[in-house]
Amino acid sequence: MAVKAAAHPDVEEISLPDVLSALSDPVRVGLVRLLSDGRERGWGELRVPVAKSTLSHHLRVLRAAGITRTRQEGTRCYVALRDADLEVRYPGLLRAVLSGAVAEGVGEQVHEVRDGG
Amino acid sequence: MAVKAAAHPDVEEISLPDVLSALSDPVRVGLVRLLSDGRERGWGELRVPVAKSTLSHHLRVLRAAGITRTRQEGTRCYVALRDADLEVRYPGLLRAVLSGAVAEGVGEQVHEVRDGG
DNA sequence: TTCGACGTTCTACGAACATCGAACAAAGGA
DNA sequence: TCCTTTGTTCGATGTTCGTAGAACGTCGAA
């Protein structure tokens, strides 16, 4: 199914090992970096050097860990960071991870593409 | 060898994915929680519900990730948290992880044992 | 209805991981 | 020297993960 009622854990259900495990993959960290400005992205805007099934897998892991939220609009899906929820659950964690990732260049393989880019 | 020149990465060599991956295991989080008061522990003081080879493995992962430091004294080994190094490398990360772990009870399977306890 | 675009799921595979038991090596004491 | 203690390493096992290709389902347009 192109559009599915993606399972998003409630804030209370987010688990620390799941979050850290999800963030231990450079591709997923790159996605989080891209989304860290708070703007939502369509999946077509994501440029990741993996097959689309693999990207779907990574986005599912992020979603299941409670790190991102997916919204459907017609056939297209949009993904956004759940930064507020994460801040409530793990204050300071996201910022610490992001600044570390930027400093080390983790996730630079993930890029963004403008419409028609 | 009971005593080995354990490989500790330099502060500059610590990698974020390695750190997050190391912290995504509840047993290792429990060890970090135990050490989070800054006190050094002898391995005999660590009560973990795993075989000693498994404990050795977990401590090696933590050491290789740069999270802990191991010191040898005779036949015994002592382990301590590299909290200062981690704070330099990833400011706020350790505290965020620890408070989340405490809130969720992650790593409670790891206990401490006093001499003769 | 037919077609194309989009994302999910299935299946498969190699790599990495957590775990254990057993064998091994080094330091200290009897 | 022999033995105990302590921690490492090896071999084996079952699981999970990252990855990809192929098939499928859904939506919108023609």
Main attributes of the structure:
homodimer, three-stranded antiparallel β-sheet, 117 residues, globular, DNA-binding, alpha+beta
Question: Secondary structure elements and their pairing?
Answer:
The structure is a homodimer of 117-residue chains.
Chain A: H1 16-22, H2 26-35, E1 41-42, E2 46-47, H3 52-64, E3 68-73, E4 76-81, H4 83-89, H5 93-104, E5 111-112
Antiparallel strand pairs in A: 1-4, 2-5, 3-4
The structure holds a DNA duplex (30 and 30 nucleotides).
Low-confidence stretches of chain A: none
Distance between the termini of chain A: 27 Å
* Radius of gyration of chain A over all CA atoms, rounded: 13 Å
The main β sheet of chain A shows up as: 3 strands, antiparallel
Count of discrete alpha- or pi-helical segments spanning 4 or more residues of chain A: 5
Largest interface (CB < 8 Å): A-B, 23 and 23 residues
- The pLDDT mean of chain A sits at 92
The SSE order of chain A reads HHEEHEEHHE
Estimate percent helicity of chain A: 40-55%
Tell me the number of strands of chain A. Answer: 5
Strand order of the largest sheet of chain A: 1-4-3
Q: How much β-strand is present in the residues of chain A?
A: 15-25%
Helix and strand content put the structural class of chain A at alpha+beta
Overall, the morphology of chain A is globular
Oligomer: homodimer
